[in-house]
Write a structure and sequence with these properties.
InterPro entries: Alpha/beta_knot_MTases, tRNA_m1G_MeTrfase_C_sf, tRNA_m1G_MeTrfase_TrmD, tRNA_m1G_MTases_N, tRNA_MeTrfase_TRMD/TRM10. The protein is of the alpha/beta class and 225 residues long. It folds into two domains: 160 residues, Alpha/beta knot; 60 residues, Trp Operon Repressor, Chain A. It is built from seven helices and nine strands. The protein has a five-stranded parallel β-sheet. A hairpin with a 2-residue loop joins strand 8 and strand 9. Helix 2 packs parallel to helix 4. The chain is elongated. The chain binds 6-chloroguanine. The site of 6-chloroguanine has 13 residues, from strand 5 and strand 7.
Length: 225
């Protein structure tokens, strides 16, 4: 998979050099490039924002640098993702859909947002999705893009060593994950649930399922609807 990111804070994305995704990049499973939006400006001050038409607080990102950036990055197979609190909710199902794409482009807005015509223009050149991480406000799309890239990247075949771990994890079956334990069996007076030490695989599977259901009912009843 190819991933392009457009941002005014390219240094944010240095964390993608490490860990699982860093290895996926080294092995060529993921090809990732970060582009500084200011490199697509043409004025001396490398201006990326201006005051909003109609008035109001804050600044809006100007369309011209975005147009230049998108023109240099997009091709017919691209899908453009604009992280936005006004977008559709990004879920595990979204991550799964995006994991089979060839080319993801993340357009990270700052300030009060990007001139809406940029989204309109992008939609004439590629498929476009506005994606939100949840009902809270971030200062810009960078952290959201990073979360989406991690969620998608780990679903690409070969990125995770043991694919079984993808099958068993939270949200893959629509429920929260069961609790996990490792040695020692007793720690600071706290015990591992005895069933996990029983060697009885059927009983363990049943206990884990029950834990998943109990947790989901208690913490995220909305997932059961
Ligand atoms: Cl994707 N962007 C911003 N700026 N804030 C958010 C978000 C995205 N998702 C939730 N809050």
């Amino acid at each position: 998979m190819r991933i392009d990111i457009v941002t005014i804070f390219p240094e944010f994305f240095s964390v993608l050099d490490v860990s699982l995704l860093g290895r996926a990049r080294e092995s060529g499973l993921i090809e990732l490039a970060v582009h500084d939006l200011r490199d697509f400006t043409r004025d001396r001050h490398r201006t990326v924002d201006d005051t909003p038409y109609g008035g109001g607080a804050g600044m809006v990102m100007k369309p011209e640098p975005w147009g230049e950036a998108l023109d240099s990055i997009l091709d017919t197979e691209s899908i453009v993702i604009f992280p936005s609190p006004a977008g559709e909710l990004f879920t595990q199902a979204t991550a799964q859909e995006l994991a089979s794409e060839k080319h993801l482009v993340f357009g990270c807005g700052r300030y009060e947002g990007i001139d809406e015509r940029v989204v309109e223009y992008a939609a004439t050149r590629a498929r476009v999705r506005l994606m939100s991480m949840g009902d809270y406000v971030l200062n810009g799309g960078e952290v959201a893009a990073m979360a989406m890239i991690e969620a998608v990247g780990r679903l690409i075949p070969g990125v995770i060593g043991n694919p079984q771990s993808l099958v068993e994890e939270s949200h893959s079956d629509g429920l929260l994950e069961y609790p996990s334990y490792t040695k020692p069996a007793q720690w600071r007076g706290l015990e591992v649930p005895p069933v996990l030490l029983s060697g009885h695989h059927g009983a363990i599977a049943a206990w884990r399922r029950e834990q998943q259901l109990e947790r989901t009912r208690r913490i995220r009843p909305d997932l059961l609807d």
